[in-house]
Amino acid sequence: MHEIDAEIAMVNRTFRDHIAGYVRLGQERGEFRPEIDPNQIAVLIVGTLRGVATQFLLESDEFDPAPFAIELRRSLITPLLRDAHR
Fold it and tell me: How far apart are CA 43 and CA 49, in angstroms?
């Protein structure tokens, strides 16, 4: 593993840990479903955010970030909610 690879892996882990912490907090507060795995959700959220960010950076003229922020919340966060189906 190259030095830069190790640094990127560390940043990825830190970002995932941060997101997983928010998911756990949501579970503790009873806002998020208890059966979800915070670490798995963190991988999905970070992967999605990175993919969207990469596309935006490479093709910024093609994307307006505002609608994506709304859709990302709807697609990634709402399904985690305990009462999402009400």
Answer: 10
Low-confidence winner among 18-22, 55-59, 78-82 (lowest mean pLDDT):
55-59
User: Are the CB atoms for 24 and 38 separated by under 8 Å?
Assistant: yes
| Number of C-beta neighbours around residue 74 at 10 A | 10
Query: Is there a contact between 27 and 77 (Cβ–Cβ < 8 Å)?
Result: no
Say what the pTM is: 0.82
User: From CA 64, how far away is CA 10, in angstroms rounded?
Assistant: 30
- Measured distance CA(20)–CA(59) in Å, rounded: 29
Task: Give the distance from CA 74 to its chain's centroid.
Answer: 12
